[in-house]
Amino acid sequence: MPSPSNVVKDQLVDRVKAAVGADVAAHFPGGSHTRRFADNLLASFPAWQVDELKGQLAAGGGSELTPSENDKRRAHAPYSSAALAFNAFGRWLGDEPQLSVAGLAGFSDRLRVEGKAKILHGGGTANLDVLLTGPGLTVGVESKLTETLNEHDPFPWATAYKTPEMRELLDEQWAAVLDASISEVRQPKHLGLEQIIKHVLGLASQHSASTRRLVYVYWEPLNAEAVDVVVKHRSELAELRRRVAEASTALHAVSYAELLDEWAGLDGPGWLPDHVDRLRARYEFAI
Q: Which residue of 85, 139, 226, 251 pairs with 132 in a disulfide if CB–CB is 3.0 to 4.6 A?
């Protein structure tokens, strides 16, 4: 029996192929990735947004548009979480003051996809799927699609993360989470905890003067309660939220279904209802 992750990937590939037509789909590298990035996007994007956002994506540190040996590009996969974030949030480019994410608003600066935040003390760079800023406010968005449906091996922390200087970037709650991960006292199987910690470190390193928020946006099937790995991910996420409930870099978590409900209730731009409908048509289904 196929894994839940593979079922979701197959569904999304089929939906994109249906959207672009058989002639275009016949030339997908490996049968799974679009040849053009634009073919992986919803049809509602104006060309200027695609050009600007694609430039941001290319400048990011995730190599989402770099071809592999078999000519596949990660952002060209219909099941790419970065492409999902691009499809969902990118349409807000130019309308940031009207955007609300998990109840957070007040954005005035240009939205960025694949926003980079360099971690101090040799910690490398955190690559946020979306970065939103306004007066005194910085919000990073981490997008998940099929990643939560798989189990992850324990993460080997580099020496730089084990230093007192690195720990001092965090408040007491997040420092305790980092310590527990380094010592392998807590190792979630479906929640990418280490990546979340790195995002918090990146935000603390580069936006220390701002109110900082990390929004974790995750995909679930319509029948989420009936899928064991989805229930496990929910449990791990709830545990983390309890542990950092009073942290200075607050963690907000919302499913994509909840996010679309939020957007459907906004008195937003005229394009928004159609955009929400297109996102639901592409990404909402049971497995």
A: 139
